[in-house]
Amino acid sequence: MANSDFHILLADDDEDDCMFFKEALDELSLCATLKTVNNGVELMDFLENNLPNLPQVLFLDLNMPRKSGTECLSEIKQCEKFRHLPVIIYSTSSNIDVMDQLYRQGAQYYIRKPADFSNLKTVISRTIDLIKQKRVLQSSREEFVIQP
Amino acid sequence: MKLNSTHKANNLSFLENSGQMGELIREMDWDTTTLGQISDWPVSLRTTLAIILHSSYPMFLFWGDELICFYNDAYRPSLGIEGKHPAIGKSGKEVWPEIWDYIGPLINEVVTTAKPVSYNDQLVPFYRNGSMEDIYWTFCYSAAFDDYGKVNGVVVTCTETTETVITKKELQESERRLRTMIAQAPVSIAIFQGKDHVTELVNSLALEMWGRMEDEVLGQPLLEAMPELETQGIKELLDEVYSTTKTFSTSEFPMQIMRKGKLNMAYLNFSFEPLLDNNGKIEGIMALGIEVTNQVISRKKIEESEKKFRLLADSLPQFVWTSDPQGNLNYFNQSVYEYSGLLPDHLINKGWLQMVHPDDRAMNIKIWEDSIATGKDFLLEHRFRRHDGEYRWQLSRAKPQRNDDGIINMWVGSSTDIQEQKIFLDELEKQVQKRTAELVELNDSLKKSEQRYHLMVEEVQDYAIIYLNPDGIVENWNTGAEKIKGYKAEEIIGRDFSNFYTEEDRNSGLPKRLLGLAARKGKAVHEGWRLRKDNTLFWASVVITAVHNEKKEVIGYSKVTHDLTAKKEADDALKEKKAELEQKNIELQKMNKELQSFAYISSHDLQEPLRKIQTFASRIIEKDQDTLSENGKYLFKRMQLSAERMQSLIDDLLAYSRTHHLEGDFEKINLNLIIEQVKQDLSEELLQKNAIIETDNTCIVNIIPFQFKQLFYNLLSNSLKFSNPEKPVHITIKNEYVYGNSLEGENFVDDTKYCHITFSDNGIGFEQKYSEKIFELFQRLYGRTEYPGTGIGLAIIKRIVENHHGIITAQGELGKGATFNLYLPEED
């Protein structure tokens, strides 16, 4: 992976979703590389092994085997080494309480997995733009959910 | 003059006019003596004799070797009446044999030395007046010379001083006796001389009184010896006596005297007597004194103690009085005077009797006289008149005070006001009498009542009333017992009450336990199955009460049994029903929960595959647009719409299932705030339909904000969806407070205050008959193609309102609009 590229890490156990994400990213033709891990344990191992060259952003599914996305987020945000890594929640859920909880835990943005592929492209593109622009670790609550 | 003239004719002329002694000499026959005839006597003798005989001073002459004695008239008395006289012409030794040893040597000395020898007041006792006498002399022995100048005799010039000496001796003795007397006197005596009051004499008592030694005061002015007296007026007193010569005397004169280095207060009785000389002129002062310090102090102590007693007695509210041994009252404390308003003179002796109530006087006098006669304590209740005329009861006591010999000195008495107690006692006695009478009456009525009670107990039919002895043996049996348990009185009296219990209860010791409980706690209550005589069971409610005697000992038990079989059966049936219902309820709740979690999980989990279908579909349309036939495209579109519908169905179901939970806490919040948020969320749609939302003054309501946001979202969405396409949407939201009693409908609580929210629109409305149906899940009034929707929105609204214990109703008119009324109860 070239250093100039934008490194994206996706943690999702769903093969289809991983495929959609990769296709969407390819079609966006950004200078970005994607690495995919399929569960929470794998994610944390990967992060540990790639210090200090962490990816620029993590898209994190919530419903994963072995270690849930919520657990991973909490570990990342409580660990000095990973804290600065922007975490974008990438989930099917639209439960407001869950969103509030994740916001409090320090997630950067929240993406509800769209049904429409073009919408998926839109939110990924918008999110990466936001991450590139902004160096602050958390958006305001109103801007937390990225709409297509 | 010729010295040796021997003219015999004239040689007796020296005897002329020479007194009786001269006569004696002349008449004496001298021839027989060694001197020979007078005419032959030498001139020197004659001359000497002439001098002696003519002297009025007593003189005596011893002459010649034999010391012939001559003396003159003046000397004669000294020889007494009977004695040596006449001794003239006799030799000295012959005349003074008894004192010759004394005078012989003196004469010899004078003759030898020619020098005179003299003595004053010399005791020379000799014989006269018939006995030896102590005689005092003042005398001089001087030489007498003969014609040749040779000492030939001794002239004695003498005076008898016996009387003077004796007087002087007596004087001295008298003074010695005086001094002894003064020294030994039982009073202090001192004599001060002169105007400076120099202490000339002081006896030991006086020294003791002054606290001084004799050498410290004797010969000293008093004030110098005792400087502490200077400011105490003593010198002034002495001066006064000295100048006026008048006696001063005083008693208990207080004086500070330095004794043993300390200034002591002394009290003295003393007098100053002037001492006058023969001319009445003052010489000095005699002080006579007695110290009475101890007496004064002890008297003062007694006075003090007396004063204290009076003070004490006067401060007592009780009456205190004293009497002499004869019974005459002689002291009353202040309380007596204050109470009676009488004066000391009125009360003294028998005067106090006027205080005593006339009816009590005779008794009072008798008892008092008895006490005086016998010496026994006086004790009496009697009435005293107060100054305002009221008589009050008093309890009087007096005790005799005896001296060490047991003789009564005085009586001390006191009287205490017992009016209140007396009245109380009288009242008490009356009360007791009254109570006694009442009790007698009560007893009578009790007896009657007991008879009635027995009859009543006998006749009670619904309750078995049984009396048990302490061992649980039946002693009494009423009609009710017979009816309930089946035994006749004669069948059961004398048998153990455990017969009424089931075998199981008897074996477990229940009858005994119940009796024990009643004995300990007073009462035992029990419900359970009991046996009738015919061995059928009945459900009994039993109360066993312990019956106690006055000593709190259990003497038996009353046992009241009620047959509750019917009630028991009804209760049991009810309980069964209740348990059944509870069970059903639990099952329902469980089912409901399962349903909820199913709805939530399924809707959530259903979304994923659905979403993927949609995404795959969108991929196909996007990528393979060109390869699809027109029909394929149409069918594909229909598939997508179905997926979308399913999507919204799932979303709504999810929202609906979520309203089961009381998500978030209740909050007091302004309703307008919620409405504004919803308006914000729906701003696009509102704009699109030119909607106007009118809200009036706001309500602060206690709600779960999240759910109410959902509620208004659904209401507004509904209004927008079912709007009249020819009119801009106009929505009115009003609220007001109302009480339950002003509202129609059985679900309103009268006293509760409700926040009534009215939500009206001008949409297509609905027919009133559907006003309840529209709130049911999945109920729709229009086809999906006309108005899309899942039929869940209003069900969610109703559920939310119910979550808030509120009520929602709907009113509609087709083509005119719909109105929703929400009633939210005000929480306390």
Task: Break the fold down into its secondary structure elements and pairings.
The complex is a heterodimer of chains A (148) and B (828).
Chain A: E1 6-11, H1 15-28, E2 32-37, H2 40-49, E3 57-60, H3 69-78, E4 87-91, H4 96-105, E5 109-112, H5 117-133, E6 145-146
Parallel strand pairs in A: 1-2, 1-3, 3-4, 4-5, 5-6
Chain B: H1 19-27, H2 43-53, E1 59-63, E2 68-71, H3 92-95, H4 100-113, E3 117-123, E4 126-128, E5 131-133, E6 136-145, E7 151-160, H5 162-184, E8 188-193, E9 198-202, H6 204-210, H7 214-217, H8 222-225, H9 234-244, E10 248-259, E11 262-276, E12 282-291, H10 293-315, E13 319-323, E14 329-332, H11 334-340, H12 344-347, H13 358-374, E15 378-385, E16 391-402, E17 408-417, H14 419-459, E18 463-468, E19 474-476, H15 479-485, H16 489-492, H17 503-508, H18 510-521, E20 523-531, E21 537-548, E22 554-563, H19 565-623, H20 630-658, E23 667-670, H21 671-681, H22 683-688, E24 692-695, E25 700-703, H23 705-721, E26 730-739, E27 753-760, H24 793-803, E28 807-813, E29 817-825
Parallel strand pairs in B: 24-26
Antiparallel strand pairs in B: 1-2, 1-7, 3-6, 4-5, 6-7, 8-9, 8-12, 10-11, 11-12, 13-14, 13-17, 15-16, 16-17, 18-19, 18-22, 20-21, 21-22, 23-25, 26-27, 27-29, 28-29
Keywords (chain A): Phosphoprotein
Organism (chain A): Arenibacter echinorum
InterPro entries (chain A): CheY-like_superfamily, Sig_transdc_resp-reg_receiver, TCS_response_regulator
